[in-house]
Amino acid sequence: MKKQVTIYTDGACSGNPGPGGWGALLMFGSITREVSGSSPATTNNRMELGAAIEALALLKEPCLVDLYSDSSYLVNAINNGWLQRWQRNSWQTAAKKSVENIDLWQKLIKLLKVHEVRFHKVKGHSDNAYNNRCDQLAREAIKKTS
Predict the structure, then answer these.
(1) Partner of 51 for a Cys bridge, out of 9, 74, 82, 89, CB 3.0 to 4.6 A?
(2) Is position 11 annotated as part of the catalytic site?
């Protein structure tokens, strides 16, 4: 039986593009692990994707994951089938433009083959303590890039 893990993620950018950070909480039973990282020159969407990728990559075995994010870009790409369509259309959007962040989407796809992940949208900068903590971790990570 696969372990059930809950992950909250958030990405942030000071300027877009600009220095960015990401934060994540991984929860298994009574254990919570906080992780974060940064990049000196990036975009908010890259940090949102990066948070999910880095958190999933930390799991040491295939897991059942509920992943919560305030990123419509991330959650809608999965839940609305955009990611599958982009792949079928040779990484082109419905408007026939190149999909951005292909490198990160491809990393995420590999992780989604290992873990069974359900994506959930949460309202950002609201009353969700876990999302707010991830935002705080992301913003603290940005400060470390300066």
Answers:
(1) 9
(2) yes
CATH code of residue 88: 3.30.420.10
When divided into structural domains, the chain yields a total of 1
Q: What's the pLDDT tens digit per position in 41-99?
A: 999 999 999 999 999 999 999 999 999 999 999 999 999 999 999 999 999 998 999 99
0.85 cut: is pTM over it? yes
Annotated active-site residue 125? The verdict is: yes
Q: Which of 32, 8, 17 is nearest to 145 (CA)?
A: 17
Three-state secondary-structure class, residue 18: strand
Judge whether 48 is annotated as a binding position: yes
Determine how β-strand 18-28 pairs with β-strand 63-69.
unpaired
Q: Which residues span the domain enclosing 135? A: 3-145
